[in-house]
Amino acid sequence: MTSRQRADGAIDGRAGGFPDVRGTRGAAALEPGGAGRSTQGNPGGVRRWVGDHRDALLFAVTVGLLAAGGAAFFLAARAVATGAWVAATILGLLYSTATIGAALRRRKPSVDIIAWLALVGALLVNEAFAGAVVAVMLATGALLESRAAARARRELSLLASRAPRTARRLRGDGPLEEVPVGEVVVGDRLLVGSGEIVAVDGRLLGPGVFDESALSGEPLPVERPAGQDVRSGVVNAGRPVEMIATATAAESTYAGVVRLVEQAQAASAPFVRVADRFAIGFVPLTLALAGGAWGLSGDAVRAVAVLVVATPCPLLLAAPIAFMSGLSRAARRGVVVKGGAALEQLAAGRALLFDKTGTLTAGRPILTDVITAEGVEADEVLRLAASLDQASAHVVAGSIVRAARERGLALTMPRDVHEPHGRGIEGMVDGRSVRLGNASWIVGDRPSPSWVRQARRRAALDGSLTVFVGIDDEPAGVMLMEDPIRPDAPRMVRGLRAAGIERVALITGDRADVAETVGRLVGVDAVYAERDPGEKLAIVREEHARTPTVMAGDGVNDAPALAAADVGVALAARGTTASAEAADVVLTVDRIDALADAILIARRARRIAFLAVGVGMGLSLLAMGAAAAGLLVPAVGAVLQEGIDVTSILVALTALIPARSYTVALRPDEIATARALYAQHRAVAPIVDQVRAVADALRTADGDRRSTVEPVRALVEQLENRLLPHEQAEDTELLPIVARAMGGTDPTGAFSRTHSEIAHYVSRLRRILADLEPGSTAKGTAAENIDAEDIDGKDIDAEDIVEIRRLLYGLHAILRLHNAQEEEGIFSLLPEESAQGHR
After folding, report:
1. Which of 53, 141, 203, 336 allows an S-S link to 586, with CB 3.0 to 4.6 Å?
2. Which residues belong to the active site?
3. What is the pTM of this model?
């Protein structure tokens, strides 16, 4: 193994700001060759191995002695049988004495005193078989607890065991150098080879294919285009790819996940703590019942029988196992819950408060339009701007580069790049001086032309960000950027309400008009806009005083509110922040609908914990009553008690079984089909904006109106040749997949109806253009009596332009709504791969 960490390699030691992921228990499993390392000549290794496998050894020995005694008994070797059973009883007595002593040293009471008394009593009344069964019960409970907890933590531990250690850095024309991951700084150009783990968060300089299963659980490789962000910890599953580092190792996604894993195993659920206290109260109840049975009957065997069947195991083991199983299921969904307490509080939540930016919205802008000066091509402005932004690590730069590549524009690498602080970026692209930044830097003191005023007005109405572009020291255009609503957010809110959330509110520091728009589209009950962190904190405390409250956010300014809520939820898919450190629940996938799944999992785990405890304790109390009445001898009671324990634990383990989810499961072939159609969906996206642009350009003033209609003809050609075939492909290939996955009665009917409406509008545009052709004969009832000579060579009237514009604006509105519905209702169902960026 070289120093460059491969995806299939083992990891040892500490490097580059990543915390040491090896704990005390199971440390050998995370070290190279840990589990299979020879212990010969290494006494410390032997002791560690014995300690790690103590529960399994105890179980094996006690079961072996019980079985050996049974075989001897059936062979009429009664003395041998009794000796084996007494040995198992003594072994169980030593184990319970050790656990009681450890509890006393921690100054904590222990219910193992019941088992200890049962073992002593079995020896005193010559019930060696009952004592051996109780010893096996102790060993079985310890083994099941350790195995269930280990299984429930496996998904969390796997994340921590793969932390990348080195990176390969490119410096200008110099040689490739391999450096510790801690030496990587923002802006470094890195090479990620095939099969290598991405060391730090970054932005791709070229397309790549990545295995993101360690972070998102997505089993299939995910294709990422150039300009898109990629997270540390994912594996390059394709050809070598270059990227620009956007975070240091300590600030990258994987380092944060490791820290979160360490916190996720610390706290016990409140129900578990109540169960522990109830189990302590179970001790005097058991002793009183055993003493009463002995005193009233004068038969000490009855007291031993009561002690043998008395089992608080459903309280001590079943409840924690159910919650740990819930933690495991949540981790598989990409949700790290920091302990059982957080899981139980998440299940109890009734009000859910959201931050806006990065939580209900994507948190990164997308390009919505390019407005240019007269005579300047929008695609050329975007091409030059994106070429320059390839050298920037700014989040807006990545969005601009991604938009240019999605439109198929050929980018070139810039030269002489500078980023003046607070202004923007400038450099040379194809021999031309290009600047990107704010209006004061690009426009300067010049009077604002009409296109600048139009851009500012639209930005103010839509809440958009503006990036001005200057070419050769002249203002050339402005790019409008918006932070889109997450496609899965509206469906997630509906899912939360179905899961039992009674109130959903939005809290943001953004403008009221922007916040109201987001809240209305997502479907929240209340919107609190223009609030600073202190005011957010006050709102959370106010909600908390009324009902159990969950707060979800992703920024540093959300950290106080997350800490004040009953449960704080942080989105950390693109890197961890102070919000992730303050939160109780962390989403490591870039899907907000995973929160609805986590709440369902939490409520199911709590329900199963109550069921396991109720079934187990109910059966135990019934058995204790029967033993006190003399209906159960110790031997039979011991076997019955073992069955009760196993039953309650098996009920608790059902929390690991997959159940109802708001994340729809698609087959691999269906995912491939949907992603192919989504790629087409994005490819035809610019046509939607073109519809509005063509409508805006139509003029009704006197002049050559026929020439103003020519762009409409070109547009209709694109609609017929590109857009309509795509909509037909969705009808025949995509909608059947969605119908199967969603179930119900005609879940895709609205999509099919919109496809028909789009085709109808395009058909009407084609007809009106045909009617306006010189020499054409008008079709349809209303036009049958019109003489062809009246049309031949006639000029296009202003009313014709108005009608065309009306159709174009109507088509644009339908397309916008339809695309938003498809993003929300169809493409958001895909496993984690950016389904954003389409308007």
Report:
1. 336
2. 355
3. 0.63
